[in-house]
């Protein structure tokens, strides 16, 4: 067993045994626990076949929530976005997609936009923030689609202001381009924007949403938009291998997430802001020579913490803290773009709602005590 494999097992074991955590880890649940959460409202309902039944009900619910004419279920967000951007390239006659270089298709999809779909990308900005309307307006070449990742995860789960978002969409329209939202985590953006989901999604021509990143579903995604776009997307979904025979486990867990987690997300955002403030206060009074909470006031229920130590050292300290105290504050750390600095993501869900500022201070103290030189 490699050191990394051993560390991964320790992270999972510590997470499962923890008495206090801000959010459960993605690998903490067992198969039995996940299956136990799949109770159907009507166990005698016929199983879905190629997207009917419970899958169709999920699609209707998503379209209703986002205020779109239709929505299509996809086995993955990667496939949903590939199809959306390919459809728009055909409709606009322009294969160029304007997006941030830190967006999901650029970092986590193996170059599929160009390799699989024959598209090309341009970047309005390389700064670790959302692009501005001026940058979109000043792009040197025509583009068919502007894709906005809301929130932009790699930059700290950042969102523009509502006025900035309206201006971005307007700048794209002025360039005769369509607008697609990568809304994998759009569900929790309502607090920051101060607008309902329907109004936010209404700015775009198409929206992708995830069922597991915020809603706790097993997997899967949806693409929402006009009836004609979604009809075309369903054709491409089949071509891409996404016409799966049965998908009721994913659909049931997604519907459960929409019923159970979606109403709670505003409380998670509010608590994340309390945790971030307490953590910043605790770090400011600690021996740590430098730190960054990014953003200082979280836009969603997720944010970044930057510290001036190696990633392995920080991860080990976090695991030891969990193993020895039963409290999980930090999980895995990664090297930041700055040498000698590492970054981690904190997520606050139901498990973290009862954390007080004092709890955060004590957890950080226990963590720093185990940060061996």
UniProtKB/TrEMBL annotation:
<dbReference type="InterPro" id="IPR015424">
    <property type="entry name" value="PyrdxlP-dep_Trfase"/>
</dbReference>
<feature type="domain" description="Aromatic amino acid beta-eliminating lyase/threonine aldolase">
    <location>
        <begin position="49"/>
        <end position="280"/>
    </location>
</feature>
<keyword id="KW-0663">Pyridoxal phosphate</keyword>
<dbReference type="GO" id="GO:0006545">
    <property type="term" value="P:glycine biosynthetic process"/>
</dbReference>
<dbReference type="Pfam" id="PF01212">
    <property type="entry name" value="Beta_elim_lyase"/>
</dbReference>
<dbReference type="InterPro" id="IPR001597">
    <property type="entry name" value="ArAA_b-elim_lyase/Thr_aldolase"/>
</dbReference>
<dbReference type="InterPro" id="IPR015422">
    <property type="entry name" value="PyrdxlP-dep_Trfase_small"/>
</dbReference>
<protein>
    <submittedName>
        <fullName>Threonine aldolase</fullName>
    </submittedName>
</protein>
<dbReference type="InterPro" id="IPR015421">
    <property type="entry name" value="PyrdxlP-dep_Trfase_major"/>
</dbReference>
<dbReference type="GO" id="GO:0008732">
    <property type="term" value="F:L-allo-threonine aldolase activity"/>
</dbReference>
<dbReference type="GO" id="GO:0005829">
    <property type="term" value="C:cytosol"/>
</dbReference>
<comment type="similarity">
    <text>Belongs to the threonine aldolase family.</text>
</comment>
<dbReference type="GO" id="GO:0006567">
    <property type="term" value="P:L-threonine catabolic process"/>
</dbReference>
């Amino acid at each position: 067993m490699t050191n990394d494999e051993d560390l991964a097992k320790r992270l999972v074991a510590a997470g499962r045994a923890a008495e206090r955590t801000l959010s459960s880890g993605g690998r903490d649940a067992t198969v039995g626990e996940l299956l136990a959460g799949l109770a159907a409202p009507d166990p005698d309902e016929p199983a879905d076949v190629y997207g009917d039944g419970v899958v169709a009900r999920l699609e209707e619910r998503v379209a209703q929530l986002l205020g779109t004419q239709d929505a299509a279920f996809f086995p993955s967000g990667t496939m949903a976005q590939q199809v959306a951007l390919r459809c728009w390239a055909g409709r606009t006659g322009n294969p160029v997609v304007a997006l941030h270089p830190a967006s999901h298709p650029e970092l986590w999809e193996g170059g599929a936009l160009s390799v699989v779909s024959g598209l090309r990308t341009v970047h309005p900005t390389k700064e670790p923030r959302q692009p501005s309307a001026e940058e979109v307006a000043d792009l040197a070449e025509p583009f068919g689609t502007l894709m906005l990742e809301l929130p932009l995860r790699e930059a700290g789960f950042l969102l523009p202001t509502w006025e900035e978002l309206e201006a971005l969409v307007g700048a794209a329209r002025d360039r005769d381009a369509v607008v697609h939202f990568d809304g994998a985590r759009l569900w929790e953006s309502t607090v920051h924007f101060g607008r309902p989901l329907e109004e936010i999604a209404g700015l775009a021509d198409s929206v992708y949403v995830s069922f597991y990143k915020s809603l706790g579903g097993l997997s899967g995604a949806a693409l929402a938009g006009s009836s004609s776009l979604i009809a075309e997307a369903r054709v491409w979904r089949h071509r891409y291998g996404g016409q799966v025979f049965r998908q009721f486990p994913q659909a049931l867990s997604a519907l459960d997430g929409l019923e159970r987690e979606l109403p709670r997300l505003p409380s998670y955002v509010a608590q994340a802001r309390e945790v971030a403030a307490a953590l910043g206060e605790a770090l400011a009074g600690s021996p740590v020579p430098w730190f960054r909470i990014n953003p200082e006031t979280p836009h969603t229920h997720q944010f970044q913490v930057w510290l001036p130590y190696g990633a392995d050292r920080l991860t080990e300290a976090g695991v030891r803290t969990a193993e020895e105290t039963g409290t999980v504050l930090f999980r895995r750390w990664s090297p930041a773009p700055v040498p000698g600095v590492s970054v981690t993501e904190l997520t606050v869900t139901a498990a973290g709602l009862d954390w007080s500022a004092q709890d955060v201070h004590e957890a950080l103290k226990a963590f720093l005590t185990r940060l061996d030189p």
